[in-house]
Amino acid sequence: MEGDGSDSPVTIKNIERELICPACKELFTHPLILPCQHSICHKCVKELLLTLDDSFNDMGSDNSNQSSPRLRLPSPSMDKIDRINRPGWKRNSLTPRTTIFPCPGCEHDVDLGERGINGLFRNFTLETIVERYRQAARAATAIMCDLCKPPPQESTKSCMDCSASYCNECFKIYHPWGTVKAQHEYVGPTTNFRPKILMCPEHETERINMYCELCRRPVCHLCKLGGNHSNHRVTTMSSAYKTLKEKLSKDIDYLIGKESQVKSQISELNLLMKETECNGERAKEEAITHFEKLFEILEERKSSVLKAIDSSKKLRLDKFQTQMEEYQGLLENNGLVGYAQEVLKETDQSCFVQTAKQLHLRIQKATESLKSFRPAAQTSFEDYVVNTSKQTEILGELSFFSSGIDVPEINEEQSKVYNNALINWHHPEKDKADSYVLEYRKINRDDEMLSWNEVEVCGTSKIIQDLENSSAYAFRVRAYKGSICSPCSRELILHTPPAPVFSFLFDEKCGYNNEHLLLNLKRDRVESRAGYNLLLAAERIQVGYYTSLDYIIGDTGITKGKHFWAFRVEPYSYLVKVGVASSDKLQEWLRSPRDAVSPRYEQDSGHDSGSEDACFDSSQPFTLVTIGMKKFFIPKSPTSNDPENRVLPMPTCIGIFLDYDKGKVSFYDMDHMKCLYERQVDCSHTLYPAFALMGSGGIQLEEPITAKYLEYQENM
């Protein structure tokens, strides 16, 4: 039960660090004991569960809140908190309640099981100490009597059975001698009331009377008889109390006996802190010196390069000036021509011939230059472009001397961008780091250098949210082992999709042919089965047989905005068509399927002409491209009829970008986020993602990147 509060206020105030919740960074309020033995506020557990549950349910949503549990969490509405606190609460029938979350104290996953928060013990001892701390902090504020008539008197006792505080007079009135209430337990004034007997969270009518040594938690006799602790070693509560109290007292006595040693080590730590500060400043000065030397070299090279460019520019301009003066002399009454005109006025034959011979040579030379005009110098300075690519790469890798930590390397194959960015990296097992820092920044088209964003990570993968669409981002990672940091890894450049990711599943009702198509339970993968039905149908045809496509569409339509989705076509697929189609065109295809017996019938053209030439310049209510035999076929167009230019290797992952408002659909290679083909589409009706298969084939929708996706990747 609660102590008498004899501890001095100074002692209580000195332990504030132990009374702070690791989640909200404030004094504990109704702390709960997690399975990892760390404590956390009751409200903080609820907020953590609600935050994680919202992020799991908002698959593909950029607005999902996955704040670190070390940050102050936003307070959800009370009705949400009430719902998540009820046993068996579910947001909907498909998504179960979240019961796993990382402990803010040790960051290990905590599983609350079926009972959720109701299965946790309340840490009454910690709660009592926090209350004593609060009282010491507000010593001038008295606890008033709860039963006095106004004005109330200052209380002198608190009854743990009545959960109320009393002054001396009121306590005598409500606890008269000779009655049952006279036997109530009372303590000094407090606002912290707790039950006299701990009850089992799993068996609410049973009191705690045993201690499970394996799980390190109190249990009742029903837990031992047939519950989760039936095969565990347990001991009596009195024995556990005696053992743990002896161990704790012995350890505390040992620490108190080593007080002089602790003070000596504190003094040593103070000296180390001062030494670290001095060494850090010295390292900064040395780094500044090294960079200033680099700046001097760059300034010297800059001056030399600019001087060479100025010299070349002056020489070229002088040549152009001389050439221009020569050409100006060819004008009438000017320069050479004017001088020749004056020479023609000479009447003395001997004098004329003496002067005209050399003048004639000059005139001939000027005439030839007019016929083949050539500038006296080049205007281009291509030879004076400074190549700094190698130096830029070296400067980008500029770091400290080898610190003994290998550089982590980003795994390009396992890193990707879809609705979010998933970055994976690996590090030698012999050089296990304590933590990593993932840096990323947007690359502007004008090469503007933006500052790096930093995220601290304990594992070797991280999901980055809230990236801008149609942008390029650079990622790099460095490792930390203690206070030592490794150099940064090589940068990985990833391109985000051109629009927000559109989440949908395959529709198993509208037009779905279960005889030819096989849809998995998650409805994100479909396979075409070219089985007996196709062979039996072909057996009845003696001349030729052309089978129809089997269509399947997305379960969500689009009526506005920009949307992007991606999928993978299995390499063994014979013929697959992908794209978009309007609701009215889908009704035409799905309600009137035709097994075409004419080779002029082409199902993706919407008519029987067998050609799409008539639709080159006009938008249609659908657009489908053909994929098959590991090839991507670009549809015909007036500018592209050559089969060699229209057949591309099939991308590993294909993306479709629909701009409904502008009536345009584009097809992307997701690996490089490169547009392969685009054209106009009629958006006067609702458009749906459309797929069609013939023969053996398979399509897998790309899964949005969420916390669940990361857990799955780690398990794999």
From TrEMBL:
KW Calcium (keyword) present: no
Pfam families the record matches: COS (PF18568), SPRY (PF00622), zf-B_box (PF00643), zf-RING_UBOX (PF13445)
Domain COS per the UniProt entry, residue ranges: 344-401
Pathway membership, UniProt: Protein modification; protein ubiquitination
Record-annotated RING-type domain positions: 21-72
Top-rank lineage group of the source organism: Eukaryota
Subunit structure: Interacts with CENPH.
Function description: E3 ubiquitin-protein ligase which mediates ubiquitination and subsequent proteasomal degradation of target proteins. Involved in chromosome segregation and cell cycle regulation. May play a role in the acrosome reaction and fertilization.
The protein's name: Tripartite motif-containing protein 5
Naturally occurring in which organism (per UniProt): Aotus nancymaae
